[in-house]
Specification:
Length: about 500
């Protein structure tokens, strides 16, 4: 990797809406950029981006558009699905969210029940924005209940005050087992604490694309907030799935979150490929994959506020692009690398040893925030140290260090990006998430993968049913057509202690 930016063809210091991307430590020279842009042309990337925003059925296996961009289309220009403008429905939900914010009084606790895409986005946003100094917050306790493991349920029910708790059940399908069982358990808890049927009905809300199922669960139709099948679960935080953001921090903050994402969409749609942040990030990852056969990459935000960001990104990237066949069912050579990460500088004291000296090359996206996230007297000094750590790690990874002692030698030539956000607020959080969404879509286009379905999550759900029945029945079982010998043995091991 050259020490100076080798590439003249692209500016390795790019920016969109004051978010800067420095890709100089990718070590990609002009010839390589030329061939990467050649590939982008070959796969008709610009046409794909236009199709994505125009509502073409880019989710070809389910014959659907992927129009999460319409959910943040604040200028309300029409977006057609099957010839029908979806913006009136989208704006109606905004109106209802704002109205709900205005009448949301006396609430101490919100239990947000949902999993996967119905959990990570709002959880990340609530966590991140709670770190913003001087943030205007209602100060409610927002409890995210995702896992079927009753440890979470128990902890939440011990803290929440039943008389002033509201429950939001979030599920695109309204059939997800974990969510439905947790919802029933929370309703039972309300009943057990003496809440009447009408008080419970007042306390329950649903956010779903399956409005009929929400109503038959017993949710008052006035408390059901719809979204639509053209919104993928992992792309749904921009819909009413993001309701807790508006309820906790106000509707204007939620709008700012949408505005940041919308601004990034505009950039993705209109910037030339050579200046397009999501495209440059996607192409540089593709380069490391093709050239160095990287199997994973890390994302390290130097901000505690973004500690949930890598978990959100894991679903976005790996559920979208973790596939072995392309859009035509043919095997692909490359698809999504494993993504992991956590906030720096904590991460330095964990797995950075491997990033510097391990046998694998693991590219890194460093994310830095220019402004400190507190007004404490120590803030400036601490922040300087935080940023200097971030910059030093990237430099050490790029250059390495040669010594006579192999144990103290750093190989170097380990690529990284640096993203710098001017500050962390709702706008820049929205822009950051949209940047990575658009990057995932770009990678899908480059690999010719459908990034908008997730068939691989179904098999395990089906197999869990007979296994649950066997665990419920207890005793010893034999292998059968649903349960193999190894799993039968495991069931027997568990059952013997019951
Ligand atoms: O894990 C599979 C999945 O379908 C995700 O794609 C989705 O985000 C999650 O389950 C939750 O689904 P739902 O919102 O329908 O409850």
């Amino acid at each position: 990797m050259s020490l100076k930016p080798a590439a003249k063809l692209i500016n390795t210091n790019l920016s969109a809406h004051e978010i800067a991307l420095d890709s100089a430590y990718q070590g990609i020279d002009d010839a390589a950029w030329t061939s990467l842009f050649g590939l982008a042309k070959k796969v008709k990337l610009e046409q794909f981006i236009a199709d994505l925003f125009a509502g073409k059925p880019v989710n070809n296996s389910e014959n659907r558009p992927a129009l999460h961009s319409a959910l943040r289309n604040l200028n309300k220009t029409s977006v057609l699905v099957n010839g029908q403008d979806v913006m009136p429905e989208v704006t109606e939900v905004w109106r209802r969210i704002e109205a709900l914010c205005n009448k949301w009084v006396g609430v101490t606790d919100v239990i947000h029940i949902g999993i996967g895409g119905s959990d990570f986005g709002p959880r990340l946003a609530i966590e991140a924005l709670a770190h913003v100094p001087d943030v205007d917050s209602r100060g409610m306790r927002i409890h995210f209940l995702a896992n079927i493991d009753t440890a979470d349920l128990n902890r939440i029910l011990q803290r929440a005050l039943p008389n002033s708790t509201r429950v939001i059940i979030v599920s695109k399908s309204f059939t997800t087992l974990e969510t439905m069982m947790n919802a029933k358990a929370v309703v039972k808890w309300l009943k057990d604490h003496g809440r009447t049927d009408s008080q419970i009905s007042h306390a329950l809300y649903a956010v779903t694309a399956n409005v009929r199922a929400a109503k038959s669960f017993g949710i008052d139709p006035n408390n059901v907030y719809p979204f639509w099948d053209w919104v993928g679960g992992r792309y749904s935080v921009w819909s009413a799935v993001g309701l807790p953001i508006a309820l906790q921090f106000g509707f204007d903050t939620f709008k700012q979150f949408l505005a940041g994402a919308h601004a990034m969409d505009q950039h993705f749609k209109s910037a030339p490929l050579e200046e397009n942040l999501p495209v440059i990030m996607a192409l540089s990852l593709l380069y490391q994959q093709q050239k160095h056969h990287i199997k994973s990459y890390a994302v390290i935000p130097y901000a505690d506020a973004l500690d949930w960001f890598p978990k959100w990104l894991q679903q976005l990237d790996m559920e979208s692009n973790g596939k072995s066949v392309d859009r035509d069912g043919k095997s692909v050579k490359f698809s999504c690398p494993v993504v992991f990460g956590s906030s720096g500088s904590n991460a330095q004291h964990s797995y950075f040893q491997l990033l510097h000296q391990g046998t694998e090359m693991i590219p890194i996206d460093f994310i830095a925030i220019r402004e400190p996230m507190s007004h404490l007297p120590e803030a400036k000094e601490h922040h300087r140290i935080l940023l200097s750590n971030c910059l030093a790690q990237a430099q050490a990874l790029a250059h390495g260090k040669k010594t006579d002692n192999p144990n103290n030698t750093y190989p170097g030539k380990r690529p990284s990006n640096l993203l710098i956000l001017p500050k962390l607020n709702a706008f820049y959080l929205g822009a950051l998430l949209a940047l990575y969404e658009n990057r995932a879509a770009t990678l899908g286009a480059l690999w010719n993968i459908n990034s908008f379905d997730q068939p691989g999550v179904e098999l395990g759900k089906v197999l869990a049913k007979p296994i649950e029945a066997a665990l419920k029945a207890g005793g010893n079982i034999q292998a059968n057509e649903d349960i193999d010998a190894i799993t039968a043995n495991r069931i027997n091991l568990i059952n013997q202690f019951h």
